[in-house]
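Section 3.1: Structural characterization of target chains.
Under the original work plan, the team committed to producing a structural model for every single-chain target entering the pipeline before any wet-lab resources were allocated. The record below documents one such target. The sequence was received from the expression subgroup and is listed exactly as submitted; it comprises 396 residues.
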Amino acid sequence: MEDAPLPVFITPKEKISGSFEIKQDKNIYKLNIKIINQDITMNLLSENELMKEYEIKLTFEELKQIHKIFLVLNSCQEFMDYIKAIIEKNKLSIIKSNENKMIIELTAEYLFKQNKIRIDLYQKKINFELIAQDLYKKISFLTNSFQNLEIKYQKLIEENLNLKETNKLIIEENKIIKDENKKIKEENKGIIDKINNLENIISLFKDEIIQFKEKNNNIDSSIIKTKKEFDMIYSEIEQRMNKKIKDAKKLYQATIDGCEPENFHKICDKIPNTLILYETAGNRRFGAFASECWNSENTSKLDKNCFLFSLDKNKIYLPKNNKYYQLAYYSYDGPSFCINNIYCINIRGNAIKNNTLKTYEEYHKDLFDEDKNALSEDGQYKGILAKEYEVFQIIF
C-alpha cells in the first residue's frame, strides 16, 4: 500500500540566509544557505581546500523530489531550522565523492524508519581573474602601508636625533648640578653627619617597634598595652572558635578613617571574626569579639561566640543564664553590643566628638569604672567621650 501523499504547500516569498560550521574528523566545513523566494542555494567550503567551493541551486519543488520528508516544511525558516537541528544532533555528514563533487548526507526519521538523504554539491569553477584582482588590491594596500611606515620611520629617525641633542644638553646640565651638589655636601658635611646620626636613631627606634609588635602578636594597636592583655583575648577567641589564630588584620581606626558610623559600616560590614577595642577619654580600655558579620540592616543578631572584656581589669564578660550577646546592626551606631536588646556597649553617632559612648546594662557598668566622666550626679551612667576605637579582622 502506497504512503498517503502529504499536503502540498506554496512557499511564501521570503529572503533568508544562514551559515553553519560542521566539524568532521580533522576537517572543518562551512555550510552557507541562502533562500530567495523559493530558490535555495547551498554552498560548501572546506578549510583544507580554500580554493575549492561546492554549490547546488534548487527550488523547493526540486527539494521535495529529493525526499518526501521535506514536504512537511511550511516556510524557508522551517527549512533553515530543520538543517540547524540536524547539525546540532550530529546527523549531518560530508562525503567527498570525487574531485568535483561533495555530498551532504542527512540521517532523518521518516515513517518510523531511519533514512539517508543525500544532496549532491558540485565544484564551482575557479575565477582566477577575480582572485588575481583581489591579490593585486591586497598587494597595493601593503605597498601603500609600507610607504606610510617608511615615512613614519624617517620621522622617528629625525625625532631620535632631536632627542639625542636634548639628552646631550640634559647630561651637561646634570653634570653642572652634580658639581654644585658636591660643593653643597662639602659645605654642609656637619649637617649631613647629624642627619645620619638621626637616621640611625630612627632605625633603632623602628627596630624596637618591630620587636614590640612581634612580642605582642603583631597587632598594630594603640589601645592594647601588654602581652598579658593579648594573651587573655587570644586565648578566649581560640577556645571559643576552636581554631588557632594566624594573624590580625587592621580594618578600621576611628581617628584615621573617620569616626562617623557610616565610615565604620563602609569598611567593616560583611566581614566576620572582628576584634573591637575601645578607649575612653578617661583612659578606660575594653572591647569585644564578634564572630558574625556586621551590617546596617537596623536590627540585631545573636552571636554565640561573642564575648566582652576589660583590659583594665583583665576580665572576660559572658552573658548570664545561658544567653548570648547580640550585635547591634544599626546604620547610626558604631560597633555596638547588647543583651536582651539592652545595650552593653553603645556608640551612637560620633562618640569622639560627642558624649555617646555608654552602657545601659548593670552587669557591664564596671567597664567604665574610674572614668571620672562616666557617672552623672544621680549615679547613673551617662554618655562619655571616646578617645579611640579600632577594629581588627582575626585570621585563623
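The CA atoms of residues 69 and 112 lie 12 Å apart.
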